[in-house]
Amino acid sequence: MTVKHFLRDDDLTPEQQAEVLALAAELKAAPFSRRPLEGPRGVGVIFEKNSTRTRFSFEMGIAQLGGHAVVVDGRSTQLGREETLQDTGRVLSRYVDAVVWRTFGQDRLEEMASGATVPIVNALSDEFHPCQVLADLQTLAERKGTLRGLKLTYLGDGANNMSHSLLLGGVTAGVDVTIASPEGFLPLPHVLEAARLRAKDTGATITVTTDPDAAVDGVDAIVTDTWTSMGQENDGLDRVGPFRPFQVNATLLARADPQAVVLHCLPAHRGEEITDDVIDGPQSVVWDEAENRLHAQKALLVWLLEQQQ
Ligand code: CP
Ligand code: NVA
């Protein structure tokens, strides 16, 4: 049997993503209505990078589904040592019904998935953060009623995990996605190619620009993220100067649609990528967005487990 993994946003077709988002809304309204992990069945949740939201939302979500989360710091396991990731995937599949993993290279997730007989879920890699974007889409759907045809602009590091996942996950939902980044920080070509392929199916548009002002004119949603992702702290690049014009502040926000909403996956670096008045202002939906991690991930787990039956 083929195992359904969620390693990147386009692992879900537009129809499958819509199913997960509908289930997320259902679970938000009735958090204890689904108990597929009753037993308890287990889910491994492994972190090789820091986390607040992902850790709490997965651990609580798994409990609410009736299961048990085995939450571990990857550094305390054999993961960083000599055992292959494929062998690890094979072994963990004998203990738990899914593995949620925050790691570095996307290749690591793919290698573990190649040995696993249970779903592997990407809880953030250097290239993608697909669980976050499910929560972002849920938040947008709540505020705007529909996703198809919405105009969303992401400002910041176009080559990071949030930019890539917003591109892939956004166009999958039929959202018109613009990425506005300084020169040298544009999305990776292979991700753009995959997004363009998916956009052909959904009719969404993709724009990549170095002009932050034009990028936000009249848009429905503005999204930003840290200029320095985990693991990039010492990469030798200037991750402040070139990014200043891309700061989400009141002047920039005023160019968007008056009903536009502002998202940030958090943690926020106030005064850098976003100002206090915007993140704490009436157009910010970041706290709902953070809450929706819980609902969207529960929905994802329920949906993935159903695929395995
Ligand atoms: N947004 C997000 O993934 O937050 P954490 O790093 O705190 O999990
Ligand atoms: N791009 C950020 C997201 C944090 C949730 C990082 O990878 O550090």
TrEMBL record:
It catalyses: carbamoyl phosphate + L-ornithine = L-citrulline + phosphate + H(+). Residues 149-304 form the Aspartate/ornithine carbamoyltransferase Asp/Orn-binding domain. Residues 4-142 form the Aspartate/ornithine carbamoyltransferase carbamoyl-P binding domain. NCBIfam families: orni_carb_tr, PRK00779.1. Its EC number is 2.1.3.3. Carbamoyl phosphate binds at S51, T52, R53, T54, Q78, R102, H129, P130, C131, Q132, C265, L266, R293. It is found in: Cytoplasm. Belongs to the aspartate/ornithine carbamoyltransferase superfamily. OTCase family. GO terms for molecular function: ornithine carbamoyltransferase activity. Pathway: Amino-acid biosynthesis; L-arginine biosynthesis; L-arginine from L-ornithine and carbamoyl phosphate: step 1/3. It is an enzyme of class 2 (transferase). This is Ornithine carbamoyltransferase. The keyword Cytoplasm applies. Its main location: cytoplasm. It holds the Pfam family OTCace_N. Keywords: Cytoplasm, Transferase. SUPFAM superfamilies: Aspartate/ornithine carbamoyltransferase. L-ornithine binds at N161, D225, S229, M230. PROSITE patterns: CARBAMOYLTRANSFERASE (PS00097). It comes from the Bacteria.
